[in-house]
Predict the 3D structure of the following.
Amino acid sequence: MEEEKKLKEEGVQEEMNVMPRIGDKAPDFEAITTKGKIKMSEFAQDKWTVMFSHPADFTPVCTTEMSGFAKRKSEFEALNTELLGLSIDSIHAHLGWVQNVRKNTGVYFDFPIIADLDMNVSKKYGMLQPNESETSAVRAVFFIDPEKTIRLIMYYPLNVGRNMDEILRSLEALQTSDEHGVAMPLDWKRGDKVIVTPPKTLDELNDRLADDSCEKVDWYLAKKEL
């Protein structure tokens, strides 16, 4: 009996430690949200998705973060992106929290928030990290492209709020890289020069050395304006 119990606990632990990686397909699921039922593989067709978890409704840090997403929702929409929140709370708790914040601050969480009471989605996305908490999702952010591929992942502990500027900057960097086939240097933001892909052959190297259309620090590091 003790051995069976140990194996069961190890199985639960392993299930909680599943963590999708960059480049993986976003795990599919069906869930109830504050905007109705959704299926991940059908959500936000032809759009990007920023899915983010928060530890609990009616908590201070989470309220500031969700308000931040709500206030800047139009900036995500301008980047062809849908927001999708999550916590291990009931749909009734979500609705009560949304209304409480709207009543007290005037900020309306007008995007779907998943009610993940059975922790199904949290487990699929590695949002449960036992050394932090076994009953609350850490502050995870998943950037998912229109093909439902995970492109970037951020994890924060329960006691540190996220940076909305960095989330938007990262989203725009990913989209700019896809569109132009370039990379982004440290602290890149819209309007800054981008990094040109390094040469992969001697012919490309010679072409790069002769190219005056970009700013060359050296043959392997060159920047240009878009």
Observations:
- The two ends are 65 Å apart (CA to CA).
- Helices lie at 2-16, 60-71, 73-78, 91-105, 120-124, 164-180, 202-210.
